């Protein structure tokens, strides 16, 4: 997997991606309030350490925007094209921790998603994540993209499998950002390599 070089100059503004039903776009000030409502929902935060306050939610947007500036990738704001409503966030991240599948010299790239409860069950996470994967493999020349979650998060695991990702049966790990004994510390790891993505994409097209 090629590493992501640290740029000597700021990255250009995030790209905008489109799918049949969604727009993956840069964040705006108007997104902050609905994103905070979503992040405060206990259902949305079921596999997160805790729901977020408005201040924590705003800081998350700021951290996402820093990822775009540093790496040219991050989590997009996802808008439902028909309604213009913010449905959540989907995109690519460089994990901020070291595990067996990543290192400072060879950072992993994760595909991730978080959608508001009213938008579950519509296939939006899969649809948007497919666009993010295509961006990562074609525009960023990544050799592999990973995803990970708690083993009880069956909804997210189902999305990973619909994306054609394969569980690394030797890849289970303890999330280092969570304390020992925390109920969410165990994680499973899924992987998707460039060649597997190309083969899958040819079948879909």
Helices and strands, with pairings:
Blueprint: E1 17-18, E2 22-25, H1 32-39, H2 54-71, E3 75-80, E4 86-93, E5 110-115, H3 124-139, E6 144-149, H4 154-162, E7 166-167, E8 173-174, E9 186-193, H5 194-204
Antiparallel strand pairs: 1-2, 2-3, 3-4, 4-5, 6-9, 7-9, 8-9
Helix pairs in contact: 1-2
Description:
Strand 3 and strand 4 form a beta hairpin. The strands form two sheets. A five-stranded antiparallel sheet has the order 1-2-3-4-5, with helices on both faces. Strands 6, 7, 8 and 9 form a four-stranded antiparallel sheet that branches. It is of the alpha+beta class. The protein is 30% helix and 21% strand. It has a single domain (17-204), classed as Aminopeptidase. The model has no long low-confidence stretch (mean pLDDT 93). The chain contains five helices and nine strands. The radius of gyration is 16 Å and the shape is globular.
* Mass-distribution shape: globular
User: Terminal Cα separation, in Å?
Assistant: 25 Å
CATH architecture: 3-Layer(aba) Sandwich
Largest sheet: number of strands, sense, barrel closure: 5 strands, antiparallel
Q: CATH first level: which class?
A: Alpha Beta
Number of strands: 9
CATH topology group: Aminopeptidase
Q: What strand order characterises the main sheet?
A: 1-2-3-4-5
Could you give a quick summary of the protein structure above?
The chain has helices spanning 32-39, 54-71, 124-139, 154-162, 194-204; strands spanning 17-18, 22-25, 75-80, 86-93, 110-115, 144-149, 166-167, 173-174, 186-193. The protein is an alpha+beta fold and 205 residues long.
């Amino acid at each position: 997997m090629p590493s992501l070089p640290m740029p000597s100059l700021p990255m250009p503004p995030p790209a905008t991606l489109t799918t049949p039903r969604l727009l993956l776009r840069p964040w705006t000030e108007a997104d902050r309030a609905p994103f905070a409502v979503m992040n405060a929902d206990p259902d949305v935060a079921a596999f997160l350490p805790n729901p977020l306050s408005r201040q924590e939610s705003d800081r998350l947007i700021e951290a996402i925007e820093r990822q775009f500036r540093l790496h040219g990738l991050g989590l997009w704001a996802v808008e439902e094209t028909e309604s213009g409503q913010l449905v959540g966030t989907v995109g690519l991240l460089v994990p901020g921790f070291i595990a067996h599948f990543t290192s400072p010299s060879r950072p992993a790239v994760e595909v991730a998603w978080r959608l508001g409860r009213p938008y579950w069950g519509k296939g939006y996470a899969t649809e948007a994540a497919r666009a993010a994967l295509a961006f990562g493999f074609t525009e960023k020349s990544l050799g592999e993209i990973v995803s990970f979650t708690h083993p009880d998060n069956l909804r997210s695991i189902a999305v990973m499998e619909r994306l054609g990702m394969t569980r690394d049966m030797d890849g289970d790990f303890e999330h280092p950002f969570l304390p020992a004994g925390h109920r969410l510390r165990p994680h499973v790891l899924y992987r998707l390599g460039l060649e597997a993505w190309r083969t899958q994409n040819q079948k879909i097209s």
